[in-house]
Design brief:
This protein is α+β, with helices and mostly antiparallel strands and 270 residues long. It folds into two domains: 113 residues, Immunoglobulin-like (Sandwich), CATH 2.60.40; 138 residues, no CATH class. Helices cover 16% and strands 43% of the residues. The protein has five helices and 17 strands. It has an eight-stranded antiparallel barrel with strand order 10-11-17-16-15-14-13-12. Strands 4-3-7-8 form a four-stranded antiparallel β-sheet, with no helix packed on it. β14 and β15 form a beta hairpin.
């Protein structure tokens, strides 16, 4: 058998090898912009956000970062890489926080990717709260442990307000207790609890309970518990919940953590 030299085939093979060994651009961080303010909505100048420093109006901008990966290795994976961004927020007199962005296939975005954070609220080290004013005429979602020893509360509007790691960790605690099969009654897979406070130490609680469904059945449809209850503050950091048909929550709680849109309550002695 005689093999004949073919310049065309040689060039084609060289081009194929060259293309597979070439690089593809991936996104390491989009261009992130936003404004840092305190809880009174005053801009915070001189605040470090990643490698950036906020201007007088509290604004900041982080440049887009990209990196290269070999085309062949990316073809083997068959999908775009994830995007994970973590940027510290530091300012003297304020609690440190962190911008955290995660996207399963975000690393595949094209050059020029942007991410607008809008307004980020930074908490002062000695931040003070008027809890009674915070609760009056407000709506909260809550979850609780098996015996309601700990209660997690998320205020209406939390998702629009929370854009950093500190508040997101509280939300994860809240969600885990809402859907945790280990602490829910047998057969229940989730419960959604909403507590609407009025201005006169009264509140309306609604709990919707969802149950496991199977092909064989019989299956139980979601049911709803509606009850009136009272609330009262004492000693500055204690809250008494009472007169509810949901007896688990008729307790005195200590304020373990408080923020503009979240509360963590721990049961204590009356």
């Amino acid at each position: 058998m005689v093999f004949r030299y073919s310049p065309f085939k040689t060039v084609s093979l060289a081009l194929a090898i060259l293309s597979l060994s070439s690089c593809i651009s991936r996104l390491g961080r989009p261009n992130i912009t936003g404004v840092i303010v305190d809880y009174d909505k005053h801009p915070i100048a001189g605040c470090q956000v990643g490698e950036s420093i906020t201007a007088k109006d509290g604004s900041f901008s982080l440049k887009e970062i990209r990196y290269n990966k070999f085309l062949l290795s990316e073809m083997m994976v068959m999908e775009a890489p994830p995007l994970r961004v973590s940027e510290r927020i530091v300012k003297e007199g304020f609690e440190p926080d962190e911008i955290f962005i995660w996207s399963t296939f975000g690393g595949g975005r094209r050059k020029g990717a942007k991410y607008q954070m809008d307004t980020i609220y930074l908490r002062k080290v000695d931040q003070q709260f008027d809890l009674s004013a915070l609760l009056k005429r407000s709506k909260w979602e809550l979850s609780y442990t098996k015996n309601a020893d700990t209660v997690y509360m998320i205020r209406d509007g939390f998702n629009a307000w929370c854009k950093t790691s500190r508040c997101n960790s509280i939300y994860q605690d809240y969600r885990s207790k809402r859907d945790d099969l280990k602490i829910l009654p047998e057969g229940m897979i989730s419960r959604e609890v909403v507590l609407q406070f009025d201005a006169d130490h009264g509140a309306v609680l609604q709990q919707i309970q969802f149950y496991k469904h199977t092909f064989d059945g019989p299956n139980k449809e979601p049911d709803t518990l509606n009850t009136q209850m009272t609330w009262k503050m004492s000693d500055g950091n204690r809250m008494r919940l009472g007169k509810s048909t949901l007896s688990l929550l008729n307790n005195t709680y200590r304020l373990a953590k408080i923020d503009l849109y979240s509360l963590i309550l721990i049961k204590t002695e009356s």
